[in-house]
Amino acid sequence: xxxxxxxxxxxxxxxxxxxxRTIRYYCDEGLLAAERTSTGHRTFGPDAIxxxxxxxxxxxxxxxLTAIADVLAGTRALAExxxxxxxxxxxxLAALRRREALLTAVTAGEVGDGVNLVAAVADPAAxxxxxxxxxxxxxxxxxxxxxxxxxxxxLPGPPVDADPEFLLxxxxxxxxxxxxxxxxxxxxxxxxxxxxxxxDEKGLLLSVAQACLSAAPLVAIGEQPxxxxxxxxxxxxHATARAERDTPEFRxxxxxxxxxxxxxxxxxxxxxxxxxxxxxxxxxxWLFDALTVSVTQSGG
Length: 300
Fold this sequence. Notes:
This protein has 15 helices and 3 strands. The chain is an all-alpha fold. Strands 1-3-2 form a 3-stranded antiparallel beta sheet. Strand 2 and strand 3 form a beta hairpin. It is rod-shaped and about 110 Å long. The protein starts with 6 loop residues before the first strand and ends with a helix. The relative contact order is 0.08.
């Protein structure tokens, strides 16, 4: 190729519609090859037109210079770069939708309170981690696989792409588990702490979990709490853990105290968020209430 067949920077700019200053920048970034004349002026081969046109189109799509350099160098396929950019844009749009939902949730009530509440779910993963941490503490004696199953079954996932109502509910749930009063109330109701003497906490938690599974079908069909085999299983679990027998007197002691409203609210929120008709908490509360009915019916 002779010098006469090469394009000056002004000619290349005229042929492509790209400003001279921009062409210089692309040259300096190594995206466009140029040769220098004896007087120091840049000249370009005819292939620079197609290369610069492609570069311009990719920049118009918002693709970064590093990715464009890979395409021009042949180290990455054009389709791969475009797919990656599309995925990045999708992530940005999701983040914008999330911001919109958060702002809408804030304005759904008192703005000051809303900001404090919704801030708890601004980071979905961190919000979910708060719930996981709460249950890891509550059920610490359980084997890891059992604990993981409980979390999978009973914890709503991170509030990603959620609508404002969901975000507000999730935020209330996160705020609830940060309250030490719920922590204490949940611990007490799961173990019936008013009746001391548990010598096998792990065995108790596993047996209570089995009792909850047996009660779940009754909860699902709307059966009112009542005595029966499911309650017997539940009481037997607590009696065994304390090396006692299931007697009317034991049931009376086990039934002391009411289920804290914070606990009931927690499981109500969880049901709303998961969409599951029966959570472990709903089954446990059914058994707790069935115990109260049992004691009342027996004249306790």
